[in-house]
Amino acid sequence: MNRKTFHPMTRAARTSLGLAIVPLILPLILVGACQSKDSKAVSTLDAQGDAQSDAVVAPTDASATSDGLPTSLPPLTERGWELRRSVVHIHSAFSHDACDNWITDHPGDVNQDCLAQLRTALCNSGLDVAFMTDHPARMLDHTFEELLFIHKDLGDTPVGPAGAPTANIIHCAATPVLPAHDLMINVGYEGTHDMAIGLHNHFDNKDLEGRSFADADTALPDAVSTVQAIHAVGGISLNAHSEETDISAQRLVDVGVDAMEIYNIHANFLTLMGMTGSGGTPKLGRLLQLEAFLGDPATAPHSDLVLLAMLDIEPEAAFAKFQQVNALRPVTAVVGNDVHQNVKPDKYCAPDGQFAGACDGLKDQYPHLVAALTNGGPIMLSDGKRIDDYTRLLRWVSDVSLIPKQTPVQDRSEAIKTAFLTARNWAVFQLLGDPQGLDFAAWDGAKHAWVEMGGTVPLGSTLYLHFPALQPTPWAPWTLADAQIAGQVPEISANIWRIVPGATDPTLVAEKALTVASNGATVQFKPTLPGRYHVELRIVPKHLRTLMKGLGKLVDTEQRWAVGNPITVK
Is residue 369 assigned to a domain? Predict the structure, then answer.
């Protein structure tokens, strides 16, 4: 692989001591989660199926079978699209709890060093667009010129009217693994389940920014008016932390959000701690495995893979709620990052620390962990960088969207927002690899045209799923050769789900396994019933075994790799 380019997804414990460790790790983590086809269901589908763009594109000259079906799915570029990568849910120095709570501890002062770290991390993550979502408590006090951290002396290009920018283009310099490229930054905010991205300016009534969308917090008309206010200033409305129980699927439907998180890194940490999605039971064995990542870099697992210690216990409630919402109204799935760079526990294991006695019994078995909690400050992994390093987390997950081919740089953020609105988006866990060539579209034989994710086709149409060719991202610590070693060949499969409007549960209608020999193959699936069909790609990441050192067994666990949005069949 040419590591200088990045085109995402393009084809070509002892019990007593174990219990004692919970309050030690807790501050570390938290400073920083049956078919139905009755007439009612079908009529609901007919009524709602056109809520999003059909995204029909011109037919291709692909060869056809005897029954007129194309034999393959043409590349996205032939269908008029290109892929662009973005991250939503990012907290900069303008959030009260980001950058080790700097702006809260230093009122009126913005941590310029932390902003510079974020700027570098965004460039080093190969992103096309960064949708900032700072907390309104501090973000509201600043202008868009400040929130976009425009540096004309560094060559930045503001986008929008003079003196009133709506976005900023950073011209990222080349690195050893990435070419020079352009990155757009946009302003947004995160309240309680109320997350807005791509705003063009503050609301006229700033009190609306950051309103809670939780079921019991805000009257429905007020929540709906907030979504309208977001749209009025050019933004789109997202739900953050959909895994939490204080916001229901019905509420998300009624409020009218445009998209919702199906995964959030912070929520994953909370699930590890037993605070979200696991019945209040901490995963003590996994918590103690963090010790391995703090030791000698020669023997420690690769630092960037620390997420594997908990990824398989991610909160499933978010994914389930996405499917529940889509049984009522089309809402796009996105993946949230939620990086703050603020994991900085106190000196809990110091002689006068709160848990000094418990730490004494742990220092022999977990010396590095106890040392970190004795010294306090950011938790540093074996690579010398903090566990919540901006670059590390920004490379873990992202959204990969279909936007019109050859979209000008200054228009990319708006094109990605449109992709979110029309469900032309993949939520991808790129820590596990780059699923190059992953593609899902439908052939509408009546119109002789391809229809993309988010679109609608009549019953009798055929769905095409192109399996990805696993590739390392440019910064990945593994190579394709690692994935070909005996015992390290990854296992890839795809689930095709059918969501029936009005029905309670989705149905797994097909499961397709990928063999190494068929890597990159296209499979066809012809629905026999109406519904919303979407793809969930899964992987057993055995190719990471060597890098995980003594924790290699974790790579034998199947993980969610990518989630696509539905195509509606009426």
Answer: no
pLDDT of residue 274: 75
Cα 346 to the center of its chain, rounded Å: 30
The pTM score is: 0.89
pLDDT digits (tens, 9 = 90+) for 224-238: 999 999 999 999 999
**Residues in CB range of 427: below 8 A, 6 or more apart:** 262, 263, 333, 334, 335, 397, 399, 562, 563
Contact 294, 310 (CB under 8 A): no
pLDDT, tens only, 60-74: 444 556 567 998 999
Taking the C-alpha atoms of residue 410 and residue 372, their distance in angstroms, rounded to an integer, is 44
Tell me how far apart the alpha carbons of residues 86 and 159 are, in angstroms, rounded to a whole number: 18
* Structure token digits, residue 122: 């965004």
Nearest to 347 by CA among 380, 386, 374, 387: 374
Residue 206 in this model has a pLDDT that exceeds 90: no
Range of 550's domain?
Answer: 41-343+378-569
CA distances from residue 51 to 19, 157, 230, 382, 460 in whole angstroms, order as listed: 51, 36, 19, 49, 21
Q: What digits encode the pLDDT tens for the residues 533-548?
A: 999 999 999 999 999 9
Q: Encoding tokens for residue 493?
A: 């499969």
Would residue 33 count as lying in a domain?
Answer: no
CA distance linking residue 87 with residue 211, whole number of Å: 22
Q: How many domains does the chain have?
A: 1
Q: For residue 187, tell me if it sits in a domain.
A: yes
Given the structure tokens 């709620």, which residue do they identify? 321
Are 553 and 504 in contact, with CB atoms under 8 Å apart?
A: no
Residue 4 in any domain: the answer is: no
